[in-house]
């Protein structure tokens, strides 16, 4: 009973002040103040900056998903028995997880200019690797 009264009071206050920036159905409790918005943006920028540094001291062959998958493809072609015995299909998700997560840090599925997952370079590299793997198995 308290919550509807608060909402009614806030709605009346908005109507009296002529505030047209509010979207009906969006709780004003969820709205961020400009200071909170700036603080969030600074924090987000810091995280993105730190994420760019994660692999800066790693050799290029080991921080590029396509290059890593090419190494596994070479292994599979040259030594198929050991490749199969190593259960690589189970290991790849854990191996590629940190690389993919770093690339997804800035991805926001709610943005207007959304890049679909299927269009991301890491997704295409995994898809190509999977297609090569499926063709050779069949």
Automatic annotation (TrEMBL):
One of its GO terms (molecular function) is DNA binding. It is found in: Nucleus. Signal peptide: none annotated. Residues 66-128 form the GCF C-terminal domain. It comes from the Eukaryota. One of its GO terms (biological process) is mRNA splicing, via spliceosome. InterPro entries: GCFC2-like, GCFC_dom. Pfam families: GCFC. Keywords: Nucleus. Residues 12-26 have a biased composition (Basic and acidic residues). GO terms for cellular component: nucleus. Residues 1-39 are annotated as: Disordered. PANTHER family: GC-RICH SEQUENCE DNA-BINDING FACTOR, INTRON LARGE COMPLEX COMPONENT GCFC2. Belongs to the GCF family. This is GCFC2 factor.
